[in-house]
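$ ./design --mode recover --in tokens.txt
reading tokens...
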């Protein structure tokens, strides 16, 4: 029992150090992005605590031990996302929006710069950015990737659905060409179903025409 308590204290202390270290503004990504690492540690700790309590004969000890282990894993995932996001911001063009939600990265590429009107051939200008994304994905292999195509509401819903699928597949093909294994990539078409702005204005329709690359830790 004494040995178990010492192990628990050591793990808890390590988890606390990891969470505290994430406040260091000198780390890659800066203090704003490091908030995502802290969030990952906290989320991991909560999940781990529940799991540990469920499988341990001593529920209190199990919860603490599970929380410590979960915090370690959550902090590691959050730190990796912070670093990858910071690297990608330096490597891709300003037209590519990168958002770190704490549990995933979302890269949004406007379809108006990715494709010509009604086309699903990726423009030469954006292929370089996609190859750099592919290189990043190879440096961070413990992730899966969803490539999600979206359209505005112009035209029929069935046409927009098909167009979004073809454009998602076209972007996924460039990532494959860049060396990302096909087992890690899933292409999805959402058509006009998930707008982020009003389709009643030209500006809103422009925002809705997009391809999102969603990077999810395993």
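writing sequence...
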């Amino acid at each position: 029992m004494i040995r178990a308590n010492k192990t628990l204290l050591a793990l808890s202390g390590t988890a606390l150090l990891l969470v505290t270290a994430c406040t260091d503004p000198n780390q890659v990504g800066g203090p704003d992005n490091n908030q995502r690492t802290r969030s990952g540690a906290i989320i991991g700790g909560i999940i781990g605590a529940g799991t540990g309590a469920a499988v341990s004969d001593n529920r209190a000890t199990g919860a603490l031990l599970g929380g410590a282990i979960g915090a370690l894993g959550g902090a590691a995932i959050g730190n990796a996302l912070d670093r990858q996001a910071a690297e990608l911001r330096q490597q891709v063009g300003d037209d590519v929006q990168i958002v770190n939600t704490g549990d995933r990265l979302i890269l949004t590429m406007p379809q108006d710069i990715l494709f010509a009107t009604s086309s699903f051939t990726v423009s030469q200008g954006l292929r370089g950015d996609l190859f750099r994304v592919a290189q990043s994905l190879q440096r961070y292999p413990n992730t899966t990737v969803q490539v999600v195509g979206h359209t505005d509401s112009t035209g029929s819903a069935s046409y927009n659905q098909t167009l979004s699928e073809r454009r998602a597949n076209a972007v996924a093909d460039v990532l494959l060409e860049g060396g990302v294994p096909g087992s890690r990539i899933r292409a999805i078409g959402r058509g006009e179903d998930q707008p982020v702005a009003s389709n009643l204005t030209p500006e809103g329709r422009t925002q809705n025409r997009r391809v999102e690359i969603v990077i999810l830790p395993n």
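exit 0
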